[in-house]
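Hi everyone, sorry if this is the wrong subforum. Our group has a chain we'd like a structural model of before ordering constructs, and none of us has done structure prediction before. Sequence below.
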Amino acid sequence: MTRLPPRPGPVRPVQPALTLEELIPNPELAALELLANALNLAVMSLLAQHPNLLGDESGLVRHYDDPLSPIAERLLRATGTIDRLLHRYRAAAAALHADRGHDLPF
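Answer:
Right subforum, don't worry. Here is the predicted structure as tokens:
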């Protein structure tokens, strides 16, 4: 039995769609956005398969002799870390683009 920090849920609310103005100076954001969406889907799928990871009324997670449940729990924790890094990258890229001005390179 372990106690999770706040209940895991979808990684983050859906971000607004990337704009052309964001993608031209930072085309890698498209792949990172795809990764963020895949992480969100992975979280929802893992919770659907292992609802015990949501915790009981006391917040305790019980694995009930399911060998996949502890691994799924670790995956959920890891997705949160990756998601935070993705959002930091997108914010830093936007700030860098704002500092350079809004001129398109063509």
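For your construct planning: The chain is about 55% helix and 5% strand. The two ends are 58 Å apart (CA to CA).
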